[in-house]
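Project standup — Tuesday

K.O.: blocked on the structure for the chain from last sprint. Re-posting the sequence here as requested.
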Amino acid sequence: MTRLGPGDDRMRGEGAGPEPLAPEIADAVESLTNLWSLAAQEAALRLSLQQLRALRVVERSPGVNLTGLAERLDMGSPTASRLCDRLEAAGLLERALHPHNRREVRLSLTPHGHHVLADIATQRARALGEALGAMAPPERAALLQGLRAFLTTQDPWEPPSAET
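H.V.: unblocked you, prediction finished:
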């Protein structure tokens, strides 16, 4: 694969579509994903990607029900229920009946679940900080600007159509 360098006119992206940049950005995202995953594995408790995603959904939406969790994780309710069983057995998640609808179960993190997510966030911030520290300040600013622009195009609960 051809790497784009600072002097390469293709870096400017003016007049060109996003397709020529996509492979290199995909490589960078893969590298970031690896850094992210390894940092999470250094935390006190090792979680699968699905378990971690489930905990993050519950953290962002306390009281979400099983159907809502399954939809956000793009999985069936039985699979989400088994995932919650494992997280509950690990002391990370708790279920409680909805006060007005006893057929609905609300999900919330336990204090231990909050602690584990905080530990993972700390590990990830440390690893990302080391990587960003190797970049020049203008490069960090450009990366932040690009990521902010990217995030404005994404629905936080819907994965991009070409998710890996």
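K.O.: great, moving the ticket to review. Residues 159-164 have pLDDT under 50 and may be disordered. The two ends are 19 Å apart (CA to CA).
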